[in-house]
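Table 4 source record.
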Amino acid sequence: MEKESNNTTAQIETTTKPKVCPEAEFVDDVDAYMSKTENNNSVDVVLRRFDEQHAKYKFMEANLLMKRKKLEVQMPTLKKTLEILQKLKEQKDDFETEYLMSDLVFVKAVVPPTKTVCLWLGANVMLEYSIEDAEALVSKNIETAKTHMEQVAEDLDYLRDQTTVTEVNMARVFNWDIKRRQSGAKK
């Protein structure tokens, strides 16, 4: 029984930590860190490595921000589609509506009662669904989009923390090098 609870705890820990990027190591003791480096106190190499890591984090952040923006644009469209599907489901008689034909051009249309709708799935693919199936699909897509938005927000928070740790490391190593040079010049 105890084995199961340990596995569950391990699963929770691994699922809550985003896997968007590797974790940045905080340099607490710069002297010890610099003595451990493969180039033996080569500040330029260490700073270059931190700078590359920082650039990777910024690249990942840009990708996540684009993903979040895409999801934010998608969400209102999905919600509007769901509203329309619910209206079509409740419809008993013909109803009149307006739709956007092109930029700033609206057209009136009379929509007869229907049991099927066509949905664009992307990549120039449109499929016909029953209203119930379409409603289920769009509802599922909304839930998936919400889940992805939450995950992207968590990943961005984690990534910003890693970026901050890397920036602090760069500053600490740079300041360490300045102090080392100043103490060497005084002697």
